[in-house]
Amino acid sequence: MRLIAIAAFVLFAAIALPAHAAGLNRCIDPDGHSVFTDKSCEDVGAVVRPVPAPSPAFGTAGGAQRVHVHVRDCARSTDDLQSGLEAALAARDVNRVAGFYQWAGISSDESASILKRLQAITDRPLAAVNLIRSHQPVDENGYETVASAQPSEASAIELVQTRSANDPTPARTGFALSRYMGCWWIHF
Predict the structure, then answer these.
(1) Which residues contact 59 (CB under 8 A, 6 or more apart)?
(2) How large is the average pLDDT for residues 161-177?
(3) 3-class SS at 181?
(4) Helix (H, G, I), strand (E, B), or coil: what is residue 34?
(5) Alpha-carbon span 100 to 184, nearest angstrom
(6) Which region holds residue 69: left if phi is over 0, alpha if psi is between -120 and 50, else beta?
(7) If residue 51 lies in a helix (H) or strand (E), which one and from where to where?
């Protein structure tokens, strides 16, 4: 009986909540604090909260508002890691680059220096992101073995960049790769 009463209460709350929430107004009081009320904003001595203007991260397409938000999923393969890292570097977004770094076990002192290195890398113009695959096994005659017909997993990743927009000297940075919690990560 008690279980039926709880289920009825949950069902009633689920039905009543959207009806009540639909009449909820968010207002700003004279002190600048948000006020949530089911009355009009003027009735509580507040004003309607203005809708903020779109930021540069927002755009409109076909009259609908479009949000550009990067949500990183786990790089399930080294190819996913390569393409994600390439996109982050092309966008020159150090936060996205840092999202591919394996931070597990890194102290706060180490993380500050790693982030500075990642920022310096992100600031350089990108030429290529290359996966470095481990050597293929060969037989006694130097021919690749049948087992090597399958593509080997990458063991490292190399960034090829120029030192700056004005200095075309190549700069190469290598990262080791590791698999942790089902994802691929870069690290120095």
Answers:
(1) 65, 66, 68
(2) 93
(3) coil
(4) strand
(5) 8
(6) beta
(7) none
pTM here?
A: 0.56
Name the one residue in this structure whose structure tokens are 């009449």. Answer: 23
Evaluate whether 68 touches 58 at the Cβ level (below 8 Å).
yes
Residue recorded with tokens 């706060």: 108
Using alpha carbons, select from 104, 48, 100, 108 the residue that is nearest to residue 77: 100
Burial class (CB in 10 A: 0-12, 13-18, 19+), 167: exposed
Tens-place pLDDT, residues 134-146: 766 666 666 666 5
Helices within the chain (DSSP H only): 2-21, 78-90, 94-98, 108-123
What is the tens place of the pLDDT at every residue in 16-48?
444 444 467 777 888 777 777 888 888 888 888
Q: In this structure, how many other beta carbons lie within 10 angstroms of the beta carbon of residue 95?
A: 14
Q: How far apart are CA 50 and CA 21, in angstroms?
A: 19
- Return all residues near 178 (Cβ < 8 A) that are at least 6 apart: 102, 184, 185, 187
Q: Which residue has the higher pLDDT, 111 or 136?
A: 111
Strand partners, 80: none
